């Protein structure tokens, strides 16, 4: 059985110089925002290490606010973004899932799922802090990554970003918040359509379905997020925070609901058939090839830029 070892919060006195293995943290004074970026060299799925660090960051941000240091480092927006070209995140750690299913290790699936749900629930509540949360998406945002994004108050995405919940392809379902978060945004009928189809949608298509809030041109996610936060200052921020809170009150989400659904996911996933498991393992290999190709392309681009005059 795999266990999650929780870490205490970072020292508020060391902010904004917190260091993580999978995350880069930035403070943007002009927009009073903190950016949590998935590092370019980090696993592009939610590995156990990344989950532990995300939980630690959550607790660290709460400690930062409690310390009073936000007078020095204003904090009213939290932005989730990624630095790897072409990939926001590929979602759940399918290699861990497949290995646990092969050895019939339901406890590991549940432990992993509970950690994900703890994060998703925290995001859905804006970390219980007086902030607005924003997800800035480029590239592929699949499975658990989309579930995490949906828990944020607002989503901005590049029009050619790719969103999807592929779990139906191996006879399970997205169990870390998609059912709840999508239903809150677009209703139960469209939620079922998106989940059961397993279809991949562009950023523009997701905007037209009203799943996301704003689209921008390819390559423009970060600039669009900064401009969105800068827009009309305090007045717009207060209205956005009120809208986000109104959503929470009109369609309340409970931690218990998310736990019950994710335990259904774990039980369902543990019982998939051999052909479904082989399909999951093929997808793991395809993801590794995709990441390798993306890395090579990014390296070639950096080499070209460094040799250009």
Automatic annotation (TrEMBL):
CDD domains attached to this UniProt entry: crotonase-like
GO biological process terms, semicolon-separated: fatty acid beta-oxidation
Single GO molecular function: catalytic activity
Lineage: Bacteria, Pseudomonadati, Pseudomonadota, Alphaproteobacteria, Hyphomicrobiales
Protein name in UniProt: Enoyl-CoA hydratase
Signal peptide range: none
One Pfam short name: ECH_1
Domain of life assignment: Bacteria
């Amino acid at each position: 059985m795999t266990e999650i070892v929780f870490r205490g919060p970072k020292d508020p006195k060391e902010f904004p110089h917190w260091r993580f293995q999978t995350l880069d943290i930035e403070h943007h004074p002009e927009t009073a925002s903190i950016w949590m970026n998935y590092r370019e060299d980090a696993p592009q799925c939610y590995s156990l290490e990344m989950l532990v660090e995300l939980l630690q960051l959550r607790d660290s941000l709460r400690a930062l606010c409690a310390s009073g240091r936000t007078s020095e480092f204003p904090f009213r927006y939290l932005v989730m973004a990624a630095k790897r070209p072409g990939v926001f995140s590929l979602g759940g750690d399918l290699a861990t899932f497949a290995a646990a299913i092969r050895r019939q290790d339901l406890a590991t699936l549940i432990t992993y799922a509970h950690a994900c749900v703890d994060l998703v629930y925290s995001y859905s509540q804006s970390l219980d802090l007086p902030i607005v949360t924003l997800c800035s998406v480029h590239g592929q945002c699949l499975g658990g990554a989309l579930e995490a994004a949906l828990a944020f108050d607002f989503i901005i995405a590049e029009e050619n970003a790719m969103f999807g919940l592929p779990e139906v392809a191996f006879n399970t379902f997205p169990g870390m918040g998609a059912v709840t978060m999508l239903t809150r945004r677009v209703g139960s009928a469209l939620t079922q359509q998106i989940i059961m189809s397993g279809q991949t949608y562009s950023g523009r298509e997701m905007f037209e379905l009203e799943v996301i809030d704003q689209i921008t041109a390819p390559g423009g996610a970060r600039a669009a997020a900064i401009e969105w936060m800068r827009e009309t200052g305090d007045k717009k921020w207060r209205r956005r925070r009120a809208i986000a809170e109104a959503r929470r009150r009109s369609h309340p989400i409970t931690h218990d609901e998310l736990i019950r659904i994710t335990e259904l996911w774990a039980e369902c996933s543990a019982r998939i058939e051999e052909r479904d498991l082989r399909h999951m393992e093929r997808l793991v290999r395809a993801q590794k090839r995709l990441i390798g190709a993306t890395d090579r392309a990014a390296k070639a681009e950096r080499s070209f830029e460094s040799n250009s005059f």
